[in-house]
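We modelled the chain as a single entity of 201 amino acids. Its sequence is:
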Amino acid sequence: MTLKETTLPFLAQDCRQAFGPTEGDTLYQQTEARFQALLAQADDRGSPAIRDHLARKLLPPLAFYQTLRARGMDQAAALDLVRQETRQAAQEKKAEMASLARLPFAYTWYRLGVKKHMAKHFPPEGWETQWVRCDGKEIHFNLHTCLYQTVTQALGCPELCPLYCENDDIAFAGLAPKITFHRTGTLASGAPCCDFHFLKE
């Protein structure tokens, strides 16, 4: 898998726009090389779902961030550049959520499918999920461990993890006004868990 096949297919073009053709191409090639190195040593824990998260969503921004830092960019500037890229991907996910929200009985369909979706795409090998409520008014579950936090910590850049959390806020905003999403805290911000609340409006 290459970066063009991940959630950041626009990264090459953005690097050229931000740094110029020559420097941008060099930055992108270095990011690609870093991504391939991370991918080669990644532990998918025998789970196709975790393999997909690592390859398409988690490691591409991380490779870009580590490449920027290795080139001497300070932390704040590097995080800002990575945030610009990941927000583009989040906006695409928001559009998908908006399509779901336009369906009749959107909350009901979401509630009926959410546990199956979580079991398939967020398996216990990467996430410890506690279900609190899943009824006609609210879907509420807590994540006590998260693959994104575990991997960013293990690779020495826990400061990157909140960016992935921000993307949840952007993507799930697409469910409004039929479904409201909110959280009171995340593991990445020091909370004991990531609490996900989806309220029927």
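As a brief sanity check on the tokenised model: The CA atoms of residues 114 and 201 lie 17 Å apart. The chain has a mean pLDDT of 96.
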